[in-house]
Amino acid sequence: MKKFGLGAIVAAGFAAFSMGGAVAADLSTPVYKAPVVEEALSPWQIRVRALYVMPENGGSVNGVLGSDLTYSDSVVPELDITYYFTKNIAAELILGVTPHDINGAGTITSLGQVGKVWLLPPTLTLQYHFTDFGPFKPYIGAGVNYTVFFNQDAKNPAFASVDVHDTWGLALQAGFDWMIDRHWGINVDVKKLFLEPSFTLQTVGGSYLTGGADLNPWIFGTGVTYRF
């Protein structure tokens, strides 16, 4: 009986030691967890900006020595749509309309306001986005612009009509997004458009004057970015 009792105690102790070793082994063995894979971002992005449009003053009426033109600035809303071909290369389409006064200057300053026009200047740029600065996402771009002039009104009693002709131009831009998270960010953007349309003025007597308007506006924008 004593031998049996001693053997039972030894067996129980050996089992307990084995279980303790197994538990220790389990506690020391790292648990493998599969890495979390973030869902890929959509190639589409939109921005809503407020723009300050500042044309350069310049231009002339053909045949009028010393004539010049000035233009009013404008603040307008704007929407742009961006598509990413890669993480660095994207195309951006800029949509918005902006009104401007045309004023006589130089030897025609006495004319005052010549007319008022609205511009629809859709601009397509190809961009390079830098991606090595964390939430700071700077970019540069260049592209083309086609400006449509509409709602054109002569604002001087000497003229019956004003017609600024639609035209192509080049565009340069630089800016950055500061991303708050994967989808939302704040945008700051600067563009330079090279626009020098020709125009025709009809006088109340039925004669015509022609010339060129050197608009070449700077466009400063800030707004909100959303990456789908």
From TrEMBL:
Residues 1-24 form the signal peptide. It holds the Pfam family OmpW. Keywords: Signal. Gene3D superfamilies: 2.40.160.20. SUPFAM superfamilies: OMPA-like. InterPro entries: OMP/PagP_B-barrel, OMPW. One of its GO terms (cellular component) is outer membrane. One of its GO terms (biological process) is transmembrane transport. Belongs to the OmpW/AlkL family. This is OmpW family protein.
